Amino acid sequence: MSKVGSGSETSTKHELILAHIQELKIGTKISVRVIAKTLGVSEGTAYKAIKEAEATGLVSTKERIGTVRIDRKRKEALDQLTFGEVAEIVEGQLFGGASGLEKTLHKFVIGAMELDAMLRYIDEDSLLIVGNRIGAHKRALEQGAGVLITGGFETSEEVKALADEKGLPILSSRYDTFTVASMINRAMYDRLIKRKVMLIEDLVTFSRPADVLHPGDTAGSFKELRRRTGYSRFPVVDDRGKVIGMMTAKDASGALDEQTVDKLMTRHPITAAPNITVTSAAHTMAAEGIDLLPIVDRHRKLLGVISRQQVIDALRFAGKQPESGETFDDLMWSRFMASEDAAGEFVYKGVVTPQMSGSLGMISEGVLVTLMTQAGRRMIRETGKRDYLLESMTTYFVKPVEMDSEITIIPRAMEMSRKSTKLEIEVRDRNGLAAKAMMSAQMIDP
User: Fold this and answer.
1) Residue 249 lies inside a defined structural domain of this protein
2) CATH number for the domain including 388?
3) Which ranges carry the CBS domain (predicted)?
4) What is the DSSP letter of 263?
């Protein structure tokens, strides 16, 4: 038994390329041809390694800019756009300052005033959005700001050289100022929503080796590792760190201590990528009845493991965080209020707004399903302090509901246990029953 990553296996060409990329300075441009020539490998091998480096966040490839060595993004900075991302959003062309593409901007300034007045709003790490005003381009760079030129205009060679010297991007977009400002604003708002979405890579410490077994280890080794760690399942990895099996207490049951792991382990185990959501991992672990999930890269090389308790704790923490930006579900539900009827049941009342309507002036069927799902989720949160993953939903549309109608949504628990729940949900307007749904869901442990 050992820790993954502690072996001394010979590095492959692929691994040597990745190690070389990691050592490059942030902002360095990377090409397949240069990597192949520098390290003496084929261009095909270099291409594959660069693609993996992109998947793991070491490099970023953008149209009209190329592939650049970047710093891995921190989760807490997810809502901040980089200059490179702005270039991609506005379909921008880079004139200079490529080494600053991965810098983040904390605000943007629209240059629609006199130069002296404009400069009062420009500071370090901001982005000036301006038209064909070369003087403004230069002064913004001198004050530590990037520049986005609208209308497809260019700038002077002097300004391009200054951008390279300062490491601050100067970009040009064919769109007008209002359009690019709206595009950037929308992207920033979407980032606020993404902040609350927790991924596996936010929980797992990949730098800390995981407890593993190798094919030649024995059942006795498994028992010792189980006693020492308290876990009952461990990844089995080959000499290159790839997951080839999972050794569990069930596999070891009745085995002699000298029997080797490769004769006992479960082959082709369930694994997960680091960029999946914690909710998806929770669903997999609950559905498969496993309490430890190996996290692997695209080549099935073990990066770390995550336990079911870590997943549960993360979901509990995420549920307590304040909302960061409104999703479409939030916007649809914003006009509904919770109350209790005479029988003590939870009911939700609200008005069908014009934005909820379909082409015939009635509430959209998709919106109606969303509202019923939201009502069910909130009722479960209120009664059981839990959340769920939807498994199935059968919906019956009894009659159309007109816009501006007040509707009442009534969710009722038909069956609720620690693992699953079944709900009956009704929608009523002033004329009676309008829609009904039968919903089954898998509960998420509290």
Assistant:
1) yes
2) 3.10.129.10
3) 206-263, 265-323
4) G
Whole-angstrom distance, CA of residue 99 vs CA of residue 7? 36
Cα–Cα distance measured from residue 86 to residue 189, given in angstroms and rounded to the nearest whole number: 13
Which residue is associated with the tokens 């920033």?
188
* Domains: count for the chain: 4
Assigned domain for 1 exists: no
Counting Cβ atoms within 10 Å, is residue 21 exposed (0-12), middle (13-18) or buried (19+)? buried
pTM: 0.49
- Tell me if 194 is assigned to some domain: no
Query: Which residues in 301-335 are b (16+ Cβ under 10 Å) and which e?
Result: bbbbbbbbebbbebbeebeeeeeeeeeeeeebbee
CATH of the domain at 152: 3.40.1390.20
Interhelix angle 157-166/134-142, nearest 10 degrees: 20
Q: Is the pLDDT of residue 156 over 80?
A: yes
332 and 440 inside one domain: yes
Label the pairing between strands 292-296 and 302-307. Answer: antiparallel
Quick one: 313 and 333 in the same domain?
A: no
Residue ranges making up the domain that contains 362: 328-444
Please name the residues in contact with 270: beta carbons below 8 A apart, sequence gap of 6 or more: 284, 288, 290, 293
Rounded to 5°, angle at Cα 230 from 228 and 232: 110
Span 369-388, pLDDT tens digits: 999 999 998 888 887 667 77
In three-state form (DSSP H/G/I as H, E/B as E, the rest C), the secondary structure along 156-171 is CHHHHHHHHHHCCCEE
Q: Do residues 122 and 165 share a domain?
A: yes
Q: How far apart are the first and last CA of the chain?
A: 34
Mean pLDDT lowest among 57-66, 87-96, 106-115: 57-66
Q: Nearest Cα to 401, choosing from 354, 438, 439, 440?
A: 354
Q: Which residues make Cβ contacts (< 8 Å) with residue 309, sequence separation at least 6?
A: 291
Task: Tell me the three-class secondary structure of 334-358, residue by residue.
Answer: CCCEEEECCCCCEEEEEECCHHHEC
